[in-house]
């Protein structure tokens, strides 16, 4: 190993609020492996679920000393991104544990509903990517007459790995609620990227719909 003493940690920041929002717990409690950390001093956070502004899981709203005054010459966009009391609406779904650590769940605008259950693609993807034969996964919805929507996953296998669709489904069923398991698995060499260098979910949604229509 090149860096045997290195410690890996997750980070979180936004252009609108600054690069640092979370750090170590003030009582020295170890940060869980998937957590972003504990809120830094001087930063105010809340998780909003509908009318509940003190939820344990919901959309993260954030105030920091580095908060933007607004988007340049875009007053309507600024108004849509800010609450009446001055918090920035991140659009990120977070979960807070009993010790106050925050964990990223997914993007609010990526969420879809299957059989009455909310599915956050990022959460399912993290679970699937724990499989040693899966390098990368992207979960998207397709319409379903009975469930409303159902999950489809595009999988990039790990180098040299042998993997069948049933292996992916069984791993999902063993490690997550049944409603999250992908109803169709499509193997690809790589995932398409959008101009932001993020996975192009829109392109994959269209591709998944095409695959579903073909049966």
Automatic annotation (TrEMBL):
Listed GO MF terms: acid-thiol ligase activity
Gene3D superfamilies, sorted: 3.30.300.30, N-terminal domain of ligase-like
Domain annotation AMP-binding enzyme C-terminal: ranges: 123-198
Protein name per Swiss-Prot or TrEMBL: AMP-binding enzyme C-terminal domain-containing protein
Organism listed in the record: Entotheonella factor
